[in-house]
Amino acid sequence: MKNKPVFGVVGGGSWGTALVKLLQHNEGMVWWWVRRKSQMDYILKEHHNPYYLSHTELDAEKLHVTNRLDEVIKAADVIIVAIPSAFLQSAFREIEPRMLHKKFVISAVKGLEPASSLPVYKWFTDHMGMTEGNTGVLGGPCHSEEVVMQRLSYLTLGVFDTTIGEQIRKHLETPFLKVQLSEDVIGISISSVLKNVYGILAGIINGLRYGDNFQAVLVANAVREMEQVLLDISGNNRNINDSVYAGDLLVTSYSRFSRNWMFGNLVGKGYSVQSALLELKMVAEGYYAADTLARMKDFKQEDYLMLDAVYRIIYKHEPPEKVISGLAGMLK
C-alpha cells in the first residue's frame, strides 16, 4: 500500500458524513459517493450535507463528491463502506469485481447483507472477488454526532493483515479519535449487528416506562447473551468486556443518538413498526438485522432470549408489554 493512500467513503448518511469529516483532518483529497445528485449538488455548493449532520462544515478543497460509485473506486486505495446493509447490493450492482483488485475495503456497516445473511466483509470476498487480507471492519463505540463534534471517541479496526491495518490505523487516528487494531474481524462484525438489536430492546423498555434498574439488568444480560452468540458463531477468542463489544452495546443501549434505541422507544410507546420507521426518518440497522439473523443458516435465533424477544415484537407483532413481561421473569 502507498505511504499516503487515497481514501474514499461510500455513503451519504450520518456515518459517511462523519468519516469524511474525520478523514479531512489528516488527509488530502477525500473521494465521497452519495446516491442522490441533489445531495451531491448541495454539498458542492454549500459544503454541508443537507440531510445528515447538516451543521457539519466540510472542507471543499479536500473533497471530491460524486454520485458515480465507479469514480470513487477508481480513485481510492482504501474504500470505507458506510451505507445501510439493505442497500449494499443495489449500490454495487454496476461495479465489476476487477475494479476492486488491489483495493482495501473497510466495512463501517453495522449490519448483515440481507439476501446472503453474510457480514459485509464476507459479502465482498464471496460476491466481489476480494481476498480476506484486503478487507476489514470498523467497530465502535462511536456515534457520528460526537465524532464531528470532536469529542474523544474510540474505534477498533478489525483486519486480517495487521501490517496493512497499522498503515490505515495511522491515517484514521486523530487527537480526538483513538483507533485500535484487532484480528477478530468476524467477532466485531457480528457484535456490531447484535448491539443494534439489543439497542432496540433497550428502547422498547424505555418506551414502556421501565426504569433504570431494569434497564441495567437488561443490558447486563445482553452482554452475556452477546458473548454466547459470538462463542457459538466463531469460538472464544475475545474479551467481551473490550470497548468494541460491551462498550458499543452500552452506547447503543443508553444514548439518545442511537437510532435503534429511538426506533425501539417509539415501538414501546405504542407506535406500529411501520409508523416508527417512518417517524425515525433514518435506517435502524437492528430492524433488518433481527430478520436476517432469524434466516441465517445454522443459527437459531430462538435459542437466544433477547434476540427472540425483539423478533417477536418487530416481525410477529406480539404486544411489547407481554413479551417484555415474559422476558423479565427469565433475566438474572
So what's the overall shape?
globular
As a whole number of angstroms, the C-alpha radius of gyration is 19 Å
Order of helices and strands: EHEHEHEHEEEHEHEHEHHHHHHHH
N→C terminal distance: 49 Å
Helicity range: 40-55%
The structural class is alpha/beta
> Strand order across the biggest sheet?
3-2-1-4-5-8-9-10
3D structure, described in words:
This protein is of the alpha/beta class. Helix content is 49%, strand content 13%. The protein has 15 helices and ten strands. An eight-stranded mixed β-sheet has the order 3-2-1-4-5-8-9-10, sandwiched between helices. Strands 6-7 form a two-stranded antiparallel ribbon. α8 (185-207) crosses α14 (305-314), α9 runs antiparallel to α10 and α14 (305-314) runs antiparallel to α15. It starts with 6 loop residues before the first strand and ends with a helix.
Jot down its keywords.
8-stranded mixed sheet, globular
In a nutshell, what does this entry contain?
It is built from 15 helices and ten strands. The chain is α/β, with parallel strands linked by helices and 332 residues long.
Secondary structure elements and their pairing?
Elements: E1 7-10, H1 14-26, E2 30-33, H2 37-46, E3 63-66, H3 69-75, E4 78-81, H4 88-91, E5 104-107, E6 112-113, E7 118-119, H5 120-127, E8 135-139, H6 144-148, E9 153-159, H7 162-172, E10 177-182, H8 185-207, H9 212-234, H10 243-254, H11 259-268, H12 273-280, H13 285-295, H14 305-314, H15 320-328
Helix pairs in contact: 8-9, 8-10, 8-11, 8-13, 8-14, 9-10, 11-12, 13-14, 14-15
